[in-house]
Amino acid sequence: MKIKTLCVLLFFAVMWISAFSVQSQELYEKRRKSMVQHDMKGRGIKDKKVLGVMEKIPRHLFVDDSLKDKAYEDYPLPIGEGQTISQPYVVALMTESLRLKSTDRVLEIGAGSGYQAAVLAEIVKEVYTLEIRKGLADKAGMRLRELGYKNVKVKYGDGYFGWEEYAPFDAIIITASANHIPPPLIKQLRENGRLIIPLGSTVYYQSLTLATKKKGELVLDQLTPVAFVPMIGEVQKKR
Length: 239
Fold this sequence. Notes:
Blueprint: H1 2-40, H2 48-56, E1 77-80, E2 83-85, H3 88-97, E3 105-109, H4 115-121, E4 126-131, H5 134-146, E5 152-156, E6 169-174, H6 183-188, E7 189-200, E8 206-214, E9 217-226
Parallel strand pairs: 3-4, 3-6, 4-5, 6-7
Antiparallel strand pairs: 1-2, 7-8, 8-9
Helix pairs in contact: 1-2, 1-3
């Protein structure tokens, strides 16, 4: 009798957990749709591929459990070691601005939580992402593998030097601020390739800058003011 009662209680517990999980997923999906509608479409993001990806990827899986309820708000969130997962609108803007194609190979400087890499991986052929903080690099790599992203390579290292082994890249995205564009990254960017970076003061604010490589030189286009955490490592020696 006791065993039968225990089995019944276990059955209802499993059913309750399952129902709660479904409700949670539905809630997250609703929040993602609202995020895309109001914070992206409402602010001028038009690329259908980008919008579709932003609505698909579970951003709440890229933050700590204590922050999951805030995952679809339009502001950065801490991910540890003084770093943040970028504001969703800025992720969409940077991705859209690169005008990515399905055949592109993209280098990301600053893997962070792995969220931006996941966004890129849904759109392009290959993503190579560097993270100078080993703890974050390890977590990002594990998270991306668990989510099934086989077209992303994560490396612990200083993004200033890029990833020469896999160069040239069709696009480069730098998710930390710097007062100059690292020369190795310019060299590793393919002709007519695009590079996007928060460029300017690493203390106050920067200008989100899109650079296009033309005849070996960069043509710059300033997009909008932003505030990113600073890039560290070799870049700090070049001020």
